[in-house]
Amino acid sequence: MDKMKRYIDAYIPTETCNFRCHYCYITQQRKFNNKLAKFDYTPEFIAKALSQKRLGGPCLINLCAGGETLLIEELIPIVEALLKEGHYIMIVTNGSLSVRFDQIIKMPKELLKRLSFKFSFHYLELKRLKKLEEFFNNIRKIKNAGASFTVEITPNDELIPYIDEIKQVSMKNLGALPHITIARNDVTKNIAVLSKYDYEEYKKIWSTFDSDLFKFKSEIFYKKRKEFCYAGDWSLYLNLATGDVRQCYYGLNIGNIYKNIDEPIETLAVGNTCTSPHCYNGHAFLTLGCIPEMKTPTYAVVRNRKCADGTEWLNETMKSFISTKLVESNVEYYKQEKQKVNLQNKKLRVARKINALSKKIKNKK
Ligand code: SF4
Questions:
Q1: Does 79 have pLDDT greater than 80?
Q2: Residue 93 near residue 117, CB atoms below 8 Å
Q3: Closest approach atom of ligand 1 to CA 285
Q4: How many CA atoms lie within 13 A of 36 on its CB side?
């Protein structure tokens, strides 16, 4: 049984989409710029840079764009190369581009077993574009081909009148209710929930979906993490097009994975210096175990659903892999190592602040 060595959250710098959801993080920040990701590296090179040998073992690689991930065809051979390298891949998608799913299901079954999709269920957009049937067909397509999936709704106030309708449609087509995430207002300082309802009311409305994803996210949302976090070592935030690596979303840049690919990768855990207001994507980072002392459900629990016909959204291979915790294949640091890591983070932050300031002054002159 494979155990996860690292979690790589890979950003695809596509910043456009065929949908226009009002609650989209990219829309909020007016970042839609019709930009499609461009890869200067071949799939073989990317797979070599992210080889199991270099990363230390099989990893879960989450592929998510700043728009629709599957808009670019170049991603398909990259996914295939990473699967051939033995990794487990999760692709975040709006599920509407049938042509891509038709391409993907042609991959060998052995590879598809390690592939999963996170279908974002944008109900109102799917209805407006008359793509609801196509969306469910694409889910059936990948399920029949042997890949795994999860379906997730970004709850928004406009969707509340449709809750019963969504539940009916979901039971009919998915055999289960979708999971529920938490919609964020990324332009607020504390990364607040995007809703006119107060938090308790919001939780009451959306908890009727009985989603383990929602339950866990609700528990950790708004809670600043102060424990020692191994993001930056056991997990990485990677720009898949450029190779730039950060510790986490708010973390420091710690190198470029496409430079010197025969050398070990550079890592630096965040430690006790996380600057994020709260761990809003902790349903992945924390359930996988970036903070090993935290008691959490497994990532499989927050992604899977059992269907009315007895089948599950995750196949056995994916389920067992994402049920593992990072601490099972990594060694926790000693007290002195932790202190050293914290000091290194603080020093680097100060050095980068001074650097940025002196650049600003230079530019003004
Ligand atoms: S606590 Fe969460 S947000 Fe902070 S560094 Fe760790 S994984 Fe990232």
A1: yes
A2: yes
A3: 7
A4: 7
**Closest Cα to atom 6, ligand 1: which residue?**
229
Nearest CA to ligand 1 atom 2: 279
pLDDT band, residue 361 (cuts 50/70/90): confident
Residue 201 belongs to some domain of the structure: yes
**H/E/C letters for each residue in 327-355?**
HHCCCCCCHHHHHHHHHHHHHHHHHHHHH
Is residue 355 situated within a structural domain?
A: no
Q: Is the pLDDT of residue 209 over 70?
A: yes
Instruction: Retrieve residue 3's tokens.
Output: 């155990």
Mean pLDDT on 209-223: 97
Reading the block at residue 349, the tokens are: 């932050």
Residue 231 Cα, ligand 1 centroid: separation in angstroms? Answer: 6
Q: The whole model's pTM is what?
A: 0.95
Number of Cβ within a 10 Å radius of residue 320: 14
Gap between the Cα atoms of 124 and 138, Å rounded? 18
In a domain, 43, yes or no: yes
Domain count, the chain: 1
Residue 109 belongs to what domain range?
6-328
Q: Is the pLDDT of residue 32 over 70?
A: no
Token digits for 40?
């200067």
What is the rounded CA–CA span in Å between residue 21 and residue 40? 30
Contact 66, 11 (CB under 8 A): yes
| Residue 72's CATH number | 3.20.20
pLDDT of residue 29: 61
With beta carbons less than 8 A apart as the criterion, state whether 300 and 1 touch. Answer: no
Q: Decide if 81 is inside a domain.
A: yes
Q: For residue 73, how far is its CA from the centre of ligand 1 (angstroms)?
A: 31
Contacts of 10 (CB under 8 A, 6+ apart): 61, 62, 63, 64, 238, 239, 240
